[in-house]
Design goal:
Two copies of one chain form a homodimer.
Chain A lengths: L3 H14 L8 H8 L3 H13 L3 E3 L5 E3 L1 H23 L8 H8 L5 H10 L25 E2 L8 E7 L4 H9 L7 E7 L6 E5 L2 E5 L1 H4 L2 E5 L1
Antiparallel strand pairs in A: 1-2, 3-8, 4-5, 4-8, 5-6, 6-7
Chain A binds a DNA duplex through helix 3.
Chain lengths: 218, 218
DNA sequence: AATAATTTTTAGATTAGTCTAAAAATTATT
DNA sequence: AATAATTTTTAGACTAATCTAAAAATTATT
């Protein structure tokens, strides 16, 4: 059996390893898990013995296929629950993460397959992140960061990089939601802030905002 | 903070104490929790220190008001989730308990209040057990065991005493569900089995079955 | 290439929850 | 009321997950 803690470590390693980083470092995991490096070393040894990660001393870890399967399944559950919370229980997108962190650990195949059906097989969670299917397949959409869009591009918001409450509330306040259309009007060379046109109004957003909003150029 | 294990002990003590038993014994808890008496003693001391139970050595325990509040809240969550599983996710009534055992520990006031609303404030779970309201109030219905009904009584099934899978499947097989109407026709003195009329058909049920089915005499 | 800085691991302790085996208290039986 | 049977508690040990502090290895800097 896999423990709650083991699942959380595997999830952390998955998220840290997902952007091309091949060996996830002990310190990175410690930071993500808000724990000490020594605790990570202990756990990583255990995960290695159980076959969830490949680990060589001082070299960091990578998930094995078995580990990846666990991770993807947790991600699937997390995102399905997020959809449930928003669509059925009227949570806003900045409130769902914390609760989903707990719901994702409930172990029942039937629960998840029925939830999936009940939600009519959603493909993306409320933040625009893709929901892996039951076989673990994740279909990627060709999104780019708003900061990478060219002047004149017509875009649709399709996701967020950061899903902290502060950022999501900023978007709410400025009427930016998934599906919102916007046009890139101007980029200020000094600070890389950009002016966008959104619902016939102009809005200046900082580079930091543009760096955390995914769009699809139409 | 209260741990998962503490919550489960409190729940066990609540269920054991609910039928008039004032002091729940160490052994009874051990049996309910499928653990050893020595473990129970340790935990009971901890619960006592934290103010969830009153405990005197060798005398068993009773829940304090604080403990009862915790217990009732867990029961509320458990039963709401059971309704959700049956009504929304098409679980059958013999499948819900195990999953609800996990869901009941998720801590989020908003989750439960929204779930309650989403389910349109159900008053009873799929086994006919009452769902405490947000203040912990439980409204009792005047149900009796079918074994206590008199010959000639017209009854409606309103709940089950035992909610084991075997018993519930027996009921399904014999077309007995909550809301089903039946009439008590005959009681066999030898073994206390009773003959009931149900949907124009006669059915003989053992005393053990009749002892686990709650009905309301109409 | 040697030293400094950083990262990672080890060693030893701690806490929550559990266990076995033995001791103490309570309850039941003669 | 004494003894037997049962229940409950204590004592000491174990596992999972964590921590601090020190040692070892790696990486960066002169």
């Amino acid at each position: 059996m896999i423990t709650l803690t083991e699942e959380n470590y595997i999830k952390a390693i998955y998220h840290l390893g997902k952007y091309g980083v091949n060996n996830v470092s002990t310190n990175a995991i410690a930071k993500e898990m808000e724990t000490k490096a020594s605790s990570v070393t202990d756990m990583v040894k255990k995960l290695s013995e159980k076959g969830y990660v490949d680990y060589k001393k001082y070299q960091g870890v990578t998930l094995t296929e078995k580990g990846k399967e666990i991770a993807v399944n947790i991600v699937r559950k997390h995102r399905l629950w997020e959809v449930f919370l928003v669509e059925k229980l009227n949570f806003s997108w900045d409130e769902v993460h914390e609760v989903a962190e707990h719901l994702e650990h409930i172990k029942s195949k039937k629960l998840i397959s029925q939830l999936d059906a009940f939600l009519e097989f959603p493909t993306h969670d409320p933040h625009g992140d893709p929901i892996p299917d039951k076989t673990g397949k994740i279909k990627k959409i060709d999104k780019i960061l708003l900061s990478e869009a060219k002047i004149g591009d017509d875009c649709i918001c399709v996701g967020v990089q950061d899903s902290s409450s502060d950022f999501l509330k900023y978007l709410d306040k400025n009427n930016i939601a998934l599906g919102t259309e916007l046009k890139v009007c101007h980029r200020e060379p000094f600070d890389n802030s950009i002016t966008i046109e959104i619902k016939a109004k102009e809005l200046i957003i900082s580079n930091m905002i543009a760096n955390n909003l995914f769009v699809k150029v139409s």
